[in-house]
Amino acid sequence: MSRTEELADRFVNYLLVEKGLTRTTIESYSSDLNRYIDFLHQRRVMSVGDADTSDLLRYLISLRKDGLSARSRARHLVTIRGFYKFLNQEHILDEDPSRLIDLPKAGLKLPGVLSVQEVQKLLDEPDPEDPTGARNAAMLELLYAAGLRVTELVQIRLPDIHLDAGFVRVLGKGSKERVVPIGTIAIRKIDHYLATARPRLLKGGASPFLFIGRTKKPMTRQGFWKLLKKYGVSAGIHKNVTPHTLRHSFASHLLEGGADLRAVQLMLGHSDISTTQIYTHVARDRVRSAHEKFHPRD
Questions:
Q1: Is 109 an active-site residue?
Q2: Do domains 3-89 and 116-290 have the same CATH topology?
Q3: Whole-angstrom distance, CA of residue 181 vs CA of residue 193
Q4: Average pLDDT, stretch 79-100?
């Protein structure tokens, strides 16, 4: 196995563990990445670090010649962008040849966005009278209210949450700190959890973390991912519900409601606004679909 193939395997494992993507989606990413690596090898570019923007453009042209639609080519580019971003974050590469290339026109529909009604059903699933239910209700509400990554959610400590002021302080990727406002419902559910459920879960113990499990240790990403799946099924939602689904929904719903793109970028913790712009395609598609369905002159 070449060094590039090893890095691709690390990236796919990162998607599986950190992002909680489905096996089908993981296989799609892996297939796209292997196709790109094979193309580089055919051009005698044996290391992904040696590829430049012209190599990537030639690859996209080859995909078009092979008959791939703009949407499929956009998906390939998103996979490659994610791969280079991962390599940058891991300090394996300093350059990103994909950053100057725009998505092929036709947009890219972001998968897994819930409707407002589906989010409401999901958030109503936990039993607030049960200690773990109250904790889960607060976690779900905060995840959606602030558009957090699951890693950010489980790492929140008590001093990070400011209920009186209505915001949470989050340590995001690259140890970048940001402050995100939270709504009154999230404040109420967190306050209920802190007052009633958390002391019962601690059983006289102590923890600096906001959300804890039965063993008094902080909740894990995997533990939260499992309970979210459970609530998605019990709510009757026939979509793949992951922590990132709620983050996607948070961004899409804000933009549909008229929020400023720059404000959403700051709340999500995106370093590049082009990442946030993907959500505008989703918002436009949903607005257009609603117009076509309900407008009397369509």
A1: no
A2: no
A3: 19
A4: 87
Q: Is 270 a catalytic residue?
A: yes
Q: Which of 99, 162, 173, 214 is catalytic?
A: 173
Q: What share of the chain is helix, strand, coil (3-state, %, to 5)?
A: 60, 5, 35
Q: In terms of CATH architecture, what is 3-89?
A: Orthogonal Bundle (1.10)
For 183, 216, 219, 242, the CA distances from 155, given in Å and listed in that order, are: 20, 14, 8, 18
Given the residues 75, 244, 248, 253, select the one marked as catalytic.
244
User: Which neighbouring-strand residues pair with 171?
Assistant: 177
Please give the pLDDT value at position 286.
Answer: 47
Question: Counting beta carbons within 10 angstroms of the beta carbon of residue 238, is it exposed (0 to 12), middle (13 to 18) or buried (19 or more)?
Answer: exposed
Is 149 one of the annotated active-site residues of the chain?
A: yes
* Domain segments of the chain as ranges: 3-89, 116-290
Give phi and psi for 115, each to the nearest 5.
Answer: -75, 165
Is 116-290 in CATH node 3.40.50.10540?
Answer: no
Whether 173 is catalytic is: yes
pLDDT at 209 over 90: yes
Q: How far apart are CA 256 and CA 166, in angstroms?
A: 23
